[in-house]
Amino acid sequence: MNRIMHPADMFGVIRTQRNYDTVGLNMDFKFHVEPRDRVLYVFFQESNGTKDWFHNVKIIPSRIEPIDGCGFFVHGGFARVWRSGNEIVLDRLEEKLERRQFAGFQVVFGGFSHGGPLASLAAHEWFARTNRREQCIIFGAPKFAWGDDAVAQFQRSAIHTHWVNPADAITRVPLSRWGFSHVDRTLVTVPGNNIFSVVNINRQHQIYGEHSIYPENWQRAAV
């Protein structure tokens, strides 16, 4: 049976795993295998250095090439990073799934912060390649879809869950009035938060590893 790990545990794996592979413009990704649950995770790391932050603020919308239609627009920095290594990531994923030991495995894309949009772009292009609509589970990511068409395209290509702490300042940018949106926004509940909690940026952005903030029926809440 394919069973997805609890989101707090998934976040912990994304944050604590070492030896990420770096491709293209400093895109860090890693495969994580759960043999008992028959799940192959493709994880993307958060910002790791000044190059990542340069791309984080390069927000001018960029068109995703029309791999499945007329194309749509996303955050320009994330699109640039993804294009720099997309073939490598997805080719390696295909190679893994061709091996006998991965027969019947489910693929789950995941990422934190800077890695969230990259996971979503990966899931989208994977769908275009294979027609496989996988789960994409991300944490504390900035907005990256530009316009309603982009949101609809991402929702069509993957089963998205974006766990968001309402006091996480990173999830509030880029601004909605500039046309940016989240593909999904499933809230966690952090006890003690108030209107001033958003100024504690580091704590609020790193909170996703605590089991207590997720609903007991987290699987249903994420659908």
Question: What's this, in brief?
Answer:
This protein is of the alpha/beta class. The protein has helices spanning 7-16, 50-56, 76-97, 115-130, 148-157, 201-205, 218-221; strands at 21-23, 27-34, 39-44, 62-64, 72-74, 106-112, 135-139, 145-146, 159-164, 180-181, 186-187.
* Global morphology: globular
State the CATH class.
Alpha Beta
The name of the CATH superfamily reads Alpha/Beta hydrolase fold, catalytic domain
Q: Report the total helices.
A: 7
- What is the third-level CATH name, the topology? Rossmann fold
Provide an overview of this structure:
The chain is of the alpha/beta class. The protein has one domain: Alpha/Beta hydrolase fold, catalytic domain (Rossmann fold). It is 33% helix and 21% strand. It contains seven helices and eleven strands. The chain has helices at 7-16, 50-56, 76-97, 115-130, 148-157, 201-205, 218-221; strands spanning 21-23, 27-34, 39-44, 62-64, 72-74, 106-112, 135-139, 145-146, 159-164, 180-181, 186-187. A hairpin with a 4-residue loop joins strand 2 and strand 3. Helix 3 (76-97) crosses helix 4 (115-130) and helix 4 (115-130) packs across helix 5. The longest helix is centred in the middle third of the chain and has 22 residues, at 76-97. The mean pLDDT is 92.
